[in-house]
Amino acid sequence: MTSNVDAVQQRVLAEILARNAATEYLANCGLDAATADRAAFRAKVPVVSYDALQPYIQRIVDGDRSPILSSHPVSEFLTSSGTSAGERKLMPTVADELERRQSLYSLLMPVMNLYVSGLEAKGLYFLFVKSETRTPGGLPARPVLTSYYKSDLFRNRTHDPYHNYTSPTAAILCADAFQSMYAQMLCGLCQRHEVLRVGAVFASGLLRAIRFLHLNWEQLADDIEAGTLTPRVTDASVREAVAAILRRPDPDLARFVRDECCNGDWAGIITRVWPNTKYLDVIVTGAMAQYIPTLRHYSGGLPMACTMYASSECYFGLNLRPLCDPSEVAYTIMPNMGYFEFLPVDSATGASVAAASASDLVELARVEAGREYELVITTYAGLNRYRVGDVLRVAGFHNAAPQFQFVRRKNVLLSIESDKTDEAELQRAVERAAALLRPHGAAVAEYTSQACTRTIPGHYVIYWELLATGSGGAGGVDKETLDNCCLEMEEALNTVYRQSRVADGSIGPLEIRVVRPGTFEELMDYAISRGASINQYKAPRCVTFPPIIELLDSRVVSSHFSPALPHWTPTRRSD
Predict the structure, then answer these.
(1) Against a cut of 0.70, is the pTM above it?
(2) Which pick of 233, 334, 415, 427 has the fewest CB atoms within 10 Å?
(3) Long-range residue pairs from 425-432, CB within 8 A, at least 24 positions apart, any chain
């Protein structure tokens, strides 16, 4: 498959066009999909973003069952972590797509087994479902991993030594985040000598689990000592599943947990509690790279395996060197998963090159080593030449298949976990919060931000320099008003952010740090001293360079946190 990439890609495109030949979308493009070849497809079908597809998708959401994007019936919607107008994007999918994803999952452990032997023992994986809704047309709308965990393929999976988890399926499927985490942690502790790998989907998720142990080890030890589960876990199926593992009192294990957790030294806690762990299985590319030093601290330097590259729209490929250094992770795109094209990215500006026509995109077999591209996909489920928004760099080749390093999400400014906040959204949130300052004779003169991950969970930090617009001076803004500005910003952010705050607990309260007047002039002076042009300088809306963060933090005069949770419900809102 990786030796004859272009032939596989031609076959995949032909299969997609044949199965979706009767769709309204392809007909509207002027394509006779039943007879079209790759050249006709490239000439007729435009490259699109979500907003162009949204009217078609909305009809399916509302219950239209005609072949709009796919000739196969849409079985559900996968909710993307990306947003449109503040709400999660809805990606229609079809039933056989689950089997296609499963085929990629089935390759993970055989690849890992090439590098680590004896993996037939258990894995401690912290896996969770998230809330789901039903569309007006009656179809489920949920994240892709929630869809997978609730599928028959996962729930009724036969015993597989490579996918043998310490967490009972009932605990994974429990919608209550505390009960699910508690049960999974307790079962992981009870089976600590059987664990050979520890993981979560994202690096931040594993760190949340460590933080959970930090906060709850005393109750966990009490349960282990008594051989009974705390009444705080009320889900009957979870209690039954945990009882099968927590079968009797274990005072020795309880004493061990207390001894390891009580002294405040958490360096290497993963290998101390789970001594046979060979590696961590977590995503540490992209926004997750910021968590690598903390993971190394807690794991005693264990290798971190990034195994798969996937999204709600499509599963793409595998890392064939899963134990490589995180900075060297490259994913080999499997050419049978979909039809892939690439929009060149300008190396100087970081912007996607504006193609003169859709035919200017580069095919998978023709990308160039060292170049950066924006990924464009055509899927069996009915997405045609869809811009995913990921920017990738060609790192090399496996046989003839390109290997890509993930560079960044296009236009994303801030991200703690699955949230993605761009500059325009941050600007709107600042403007909405700044309106609370006007009655106090103040305004926001300048601002920037950072995703702070020094605490668990991480949180957004917004630096404000205030300007006096009245006689009282900007210093007259009281603490309560500035605290409420934090909450007002959160209310303005997208639904993925608000769900992460309210339901998942994966993001902490937003913080505004007010800096003294003149701070942003100092920031400009610093940038100019490092070669920036005074004529072209503008304040960055997000900062990551440690000296700049240190400069800003040294000028902070007050810090403020959101005093409450923002509004969030599983249903989509219209405001």
Answers:
(1) yes
(2) 427
(3) 425/86, 425/492, 425/493, 425/494, 426/541, 426/542, 427/541, 428/492, 429/488, 429/489, 429/490, 429/492, 429/493, 430/462, 430/489, 432/488, 432/489, 432/491, 432/492
